[in-house]
From TrEMBL, chain A:
Protein name as catalogued: RsbT antagonist protein RsbS
Organism this protein belongs to: Micromonospora pattaloongensis
Domain STAS, chain residue ranges per copy: 2-113
Domain of life the protein comes from: Bacteria
Record-linked PANTHER family: RSBT ANTAGONIST PROTEIN RSBS (PTHR33745:SF1), RSBT ANTAGONIST PROTEIN RSBS-RELATED (PTHR33745)
Matching PROSITE patterns: STAS
Lineage: Bacteria, Bacillati, Actinomycetota, Actinomycetes, Micromonosporales
Automatic annotation (TrEMBL), chain B:
Domain STAS intervals: 159-270
Protein name: RsbT co-antagonist protein RsbR
InterPro entries listed in its UniProt record: Bact_StressResp_Reg, RsbRD_N_dom, STAS_dom, STAS_dom_sf
Keywords noted in UniProt: Phosphoprotein
Lineage, uppermost ranks: Bacteria, Bacillati, Actinomycetota, Actinomycetes, Micromonosporales
Listed SUPFAM superfamilies: SpoIIaa-like
Gene3D superfamilies noted in UniProt: STAS domain
One Pfam family matching this protein: STAS
C-alpha cells in the first residue's frame, strides 16, 4: 500500500499527495498526520492535491475529518492546488468540503496560515482594515 | 417503389427524346419562382446536372429514389439543396426546383385521348418526383440545422472571455443569457484561468446578463463555490437595480458571497483585500 509522506517545514507540516488516493491510503494519512502533529507540535497543515485527478466522496470526507482532527490538536489545515475539474465535480456532487480552507498553491497556503496565526483569528477575510494593514 | 421497371424505361425514353425541351421548360419554371436571385447560367447548369443524373439512374432501371443505382441522383439533389440552404433560399423555393419537372414532363405526354396506362405512367413519374422533392426538403432542413449548431458553437466561443484586470484579480464579464452549456464553459474557463494566473480573486460581472432567474443564480453560485474549493474568492458585480429587486423577490440567497454594484467597486474591494489602498492624490497639483 502507498503511504503519503509528511514533511515538516518550520511550524508547518506539508503533505503532497502524489499517488491515487485509495480509501486505505486516505485513512493511513489521517492516522499519520494526527501522530505527526502531536509529535512535532506544528500549528499548520498544508495538503497539496495538485496531482490528484479524482477526489471522491470518501477522500473529500477524509479531508474534512483531517481538518477537524487538526483543529482539535490546535493546527490549521489548508488544502491547496485543487484542479478545476476536481472542483467542478465536487460542486456537481454537492460536496463543499465543510470546514476546509483552501488556497491556490502551496505558497498562498503558507501565507494564509501565517496570516491566521499572526492575527490569532481563524479567518482574516473580513473587510476590517486594521487586520489588513497588518498583512504584507 | 415509385416505378416499375417498364415505367422506368418509358420515363428514361421520354427524358432522352425531349431532353433539351424538358430542361429548357424546367429551367424557365424554376427561374420564374426564384425571381432572378440566381443567375440563369448557374440555374441551367444545376438543372442540366439533375436531368443527366436522373436519366442515368433511369437508364439503369432505377425503380425508386432509394434504389442502389440512384446514388448519384441523390448526391446531386443533396448538393443542390445544401447550396440553396446556404444561399438563403426558402424551403419552398428549393423544393420547387424539383417539382417544376412535373409541368415540363406533362407537356410531352399526350394526355388527350390517352388510355389509363398513360395516366398510370404519369402518376408513377410524379411519385418519383415527389420522392426527389422530399429528399431535397430533408437535406435542406439538415443543412440549416447544421448552420444553426455551428453558429451556436461560435457564439459560445465568442462570449466568454476571462480577463486579468490586476495582479491577482481576474474578471469575467458575462454578456447574454446564461444557460447551462454557457455556464459550464464560463466555469471551466474561469477556474483554469485562476490556476494559470495564480489569482486569488475573481470578479463575475453580470452587467450584460439581461435577466437573472433562479437557474442563472444557481449557475453563478456553483461557480463561486468551485472557485472557493480551489482557494480563490469570488465577487459578484454589475447588479442593476431591477436585477437586485428580482433577486430579492425570488428569494435567492447569496450567503456570504460579496456582491457589488459596479465592477469598479468590486476591483477596489479585491485590491483592499490584497492590502492595496486606492486613494486620490489630493493637493498635489496645487503644490
Amino acid at each position: 500500500m502507498d503511504r503519503v509522506p509528511v514533511l515538516k517545514i518550520g511550524d508547518t507540516l506539508l503533505v503532497s499527495i502524489q499517488v491515487d488516493m485509495e480509501d486505505q491510503t486516505a485513512l493511513q494519512l489521517q492516522d499519520d498526520l494526527a501522530e505527526r502533529i502531536v509529535a512535532t507540535g506544528c500549528h499548520g497543515v498544508i495538503i497539496d492535491i495538485t496531482a490528484l485527478d479524482i477526489v471522491d466522496s470518501f477522500v473529500g470526507r477524509t479531508l474534512s475529518s483531517i481538518a477537524a482532527i487538526s483543529k482539535v490538536l490546535d493546527a490549521d489545515t489548508v488544502v491547496v492546488g485543487m484542479r478545476p475539474a476536481v472542483a467542478i465535480t465536487l460542486v456537481e456532487l454537492g460536496l463543499s468540503l465543510q470546514g476546509i480552507r483552501t488556497a491556490l498553491n502551496v505558497e498562498r497556503g503558507m501565507e494564509l496560515l501565517a496570516r491566521g496565526r499572526g492575527d490569532g483569528l481563524p479567518l482574516p477575510f473580513d473587510s476590517d482594515e486594521d487586520e489588513l494593514t497588518a498583512t504584507p | 417503389m415509385a416505378l416499375s421497371a417498364d415505367e422506368s424505361a418509358r420515363l428514361a425514353n421520354l427524358l432522352g427524346q425531349y431532353g433539351d425541351q424538358i430542361v429548357k421548360r424546367w429551367t424557365d419554371n424554376v427561374s420564374s419562382s426564384l425571381a432572378g436571385r440566381l443567375s440563369t447560367a448557374e440555374l441551367s447548369r444545376q438543372i442540366q446536372e439533375l436531368h443527366t443524373s436522373l436519366r442515368a439512374a433511369l437508364d439503369q432501371r432505377a425503380v425508386g429514389l432509394f434504389d442502389e443505382v440512384a446514388v448519384e441522383l441523390r448526391a446531386v439533389l443533396s448538393e443542390l439543396s445544401r447550396a440553396r440552404a446556404r444561399q438563403g433560399f426558402t424551403a419552398t423555393e428549393t423544393a420547387i426546383s424539383v417539382f417544376a419537372l412535373k409541368d415540363a414532363l406533362l407537356e410531352h405526354i399526350d394526355v388527350s385521348g390517352a388510355g389509363p396506362e398513360v395516366m398510370r405512367d404519369y402518376v408513377a413519374f410524379t411519385g418519383l418526383i415527389d420522392e426527389m422533392g422530399l429528399l431535397t426538403f430533408e437535406t435542406y432542413a439538415n443543412a440549416r440545422e447544421e448552420l444553426v449548431a455551428d453558429q451556436a458553437e461560435q457564439l459560445l466561443e465568442l462570449s466568454t472571455p476571462v480577463v486579468k484586470i490586476w495582479e491577482g484579480v481576474v474578471a469575467v464579464p458575462l454578456v447574454g443569457t446564461l444557460d447551462s452549456a454557457r455556464a459550464q464553459v464560463v466555469m471551466e474557463r474561469l477556474l483554469q484561468t485562476l490556476v494559470d494566473t495564480g489569482s486569488p480573486y475573481a470578479i463575475i460581472d453580470i452587467t450584460g446578463v439581461p435577466a437573472v432567474d433562479t437557474q442563472v443564480a444557481q449557475h453563478v453560485l456553483k461557480t463561486v463555490v468551485a472557485a472557493r474549493l480551489m482557494g480563490a474568492d469570488c465577487i459578484i458585480s454589475g447588479i442593476r437595480p431591477q436585477i437586485a429587486q428580482t433577486i430579492v423577490s425570488l428569494g435567492i440567497e447569496f450567503g456570504d458571497i460579496v456582491t457589488k454594484a459596479s465592477l469598479a467597486d468590486a476591483l477596489r474591494h479585491a485590491l483592499r483585500l490584497q492590502g492595496i489602498e486606492t486613494a486620490r492624490r489630493t493637493g498635489r497639483r496645487e503644490a
